[in-house]
Write a structure and sequence with these properties.
- There is one protein chain.
- This protein is an all-alpha fold.
- The protein has one domain.
- Helices cover 69% and strands 0% of the residues.
- It is built from four helices and no strands.
- The chain is elongated, with a radius of gyration of 15 Å.
- Part of the gamma-tubulin complex.
Length: 74
């Protein structure tokens, strides 16, 4: 019989799976880890619009990693 913690982890994985599909459709270039971090930040009170702005600004930084700097800044 599955434990309650296992059920919660499975539900969290399913949510991230769905968010990853949406992210892919929107070409956000965020991986599962980045999406999980964004969800966690938002759940802890970070303004989603402010978070999106920070991500866009970081992608514009000349010292950003190649994967991030090549991502479209929407």
């Amino acid at each position: 019989m599955p434990k309650e913690g296992d059920d919660k982890r499975q539900a969290a994985r399913e949510v991230i799976d769905i968010l990853q599909e949406i992210s892919d459709l929107l070409n956000t270039n965020l991986d599962r880890t980045e999406l999980s971090l964004c969800v966690s930040l938002i759940e802890n009170g970070v303004n989603p619009d402010a978070l999106a702005t920070v991500i866009k600004d970081l992608r514009k930084e000349p010292g950003a990693s190649k994967r991030v700097s090549n991502a479209p800044a929407e």
